[in-house]
Predict the structure.
Amino acid sequence: MNTEIIDKVTNMIYKKASRLMVDDISVVSAYGKESMLRFSNNSITVVDTLDEVAVLLYLAKDRKRVVGTTSSLREEDLDRFVTQLFSSMVYIEESEEYTPLPKGPFKYKSYNSYDISIERLGEELTDYCNNAINAALKEGAVRVSGVLTSDLVAYKIKTSCGVESMDKSSSITINVRAFSETSSSGHGLSCAASLPKFDPGEAGATAGRFAKESKRTGYWEEGMYDLIVGPTVAADLMQMVALSASAFRVDTGTSFLKDCLGKKVASEQLILQDYGTIDGGFDGRAFDDEGVPTKQTNIIENGVLLTYLHNTSTAKKYNTVTTANAGIISPHPWNIVVNEGDMSLGEMISESKKAVYVTNNWYTRYQNYVTGEYSTLPRDATFVIDSGSIKYAITGTRISDNIPRQLLNISGIGKRRKWVKWWEVETPVYTPPILIKNVKITKAQF
């Protein structure tokens, strides 16, 4: 992967910014190359490749702070970008949260998050799509659609405090939707940072099996049900929890975890962690936007909220240390990991008297960030469970509930975890299925 482009643009912007006599400079450049294949009605319809560069520039002077981004590589545009960002400081008030960037250089953990074989993929991408399609058809689907993407990303950071480093990562993901002759549908997903862990056939087979199993539908009533969420849905929920742990979200009143440090916020079964780098993970980095080496952070342990996610500024405000999750303005998680439990999916089903099993969801929206009120629409195969067995599939459902209450009502965590990342789950999450007691299920209005 050619990293010369971000090395050049990082040094160019840093040089321009250093002439402005500011107190702090951080330049983080990213170069991404994405190969994408779309398939519909059992055939590949789109093949495309996208190269993109994005540059983040942070400047601080006299306790005033600004952050801007650009994707242009033209030198005149970069000149204008740096000048205009610096000029905007005149309109900004001094920041009470300002703290100087951490002094480097740092020693970064050595890890393997880049698979050169993903970079070398060519016609194999077509084979992967066909494998997924054929696996879905073999399981009983009649129509198969989806998208496959392979992503290569390189990062370069340079700060005015002696930090200069580069990192890169790779990933490959396939999303499969399969349909039966009755238009019932199923979803399958495979995400991996390396080819040996990528399984498009399994994703296709899962989608096809769910499409077949959800052909028979039946009547259901609104009310309270135990809820079994598959990994794709559990990932969406746990992503919202980890994002709410950002100290910036807490301070801006958009977190349901405000004033919860040291308190029980979930079932004692739950452990929620964030990893800057982890075997099998992707989208993480060895350094955050301030140059601090990323690490493992236990957010929730045995149901207790241990920490918020911090950069150096929010850490100063909370009289603690950074968790290396900068975002210079807003700390954020890298790779979210849920602990392995002791239940199989089959045990969750067999031990449920009245439950709904949701395999996929979309359109997750908050009604109230502070209280955690939200709703989401189950998509594809959704099943009613009666007296320990799946009765039939149901349609037109909506989960309308409260995240803090759901966390406390977790009664089972699965044994088998998988990585999830797709357009509904932007931060990678490694999670098993989860069983939650007494969740409100309502009729979706269209």
Remarks:
- The first helix runs from residue 4 to 18.
- The mean pLDDT is 96.
- The longest strand covers residues 43-61.
